[in-house]
Specification:
By secondary structure, the protein is of the alpha+beta class. It has one domain. 16% of the residues lie in helices and 38% in strands. The chain has two helices and nine strands, in the order E-E-E-E-E-E-E-E-E-H-H. Strand 8 and strand 9 form a beta hairpin. The longest helix is centred in the C-terminal third of the chain and has 10 residues. The mean pLDDT is 93.
Amino acid sequence: MGIKFDGTYVKDGFKTIANLKDGKILREGQSSGGKALGNIKSGDIIREKDSSGGKTLCNVKDGKNIRDGQSSGGKQLIKISDAAKKIGASSHGASTALVWYFFAR
């Protein structure tokens, strides 16, 4: 079927594989107590796990592209609109980048 992200839950068919609680931390499964995969820092930086000190994975500083690392000059990984299509999302923000990075990259 493919991955679908509705803004809160990431589903593969009927199974919930991750959730985004408070719009900041992506966790495994349906529970808010699941293992943290990644988080959104400063509104546009994607980091691993749930710490603001975690490794920077990518960013959406220009609002149009998902770029490698923390810099707005980093290598473009994908356009945010294309990432949204891959995960079945209608949003084009940092949460889309976070879900795409872990489930559709």
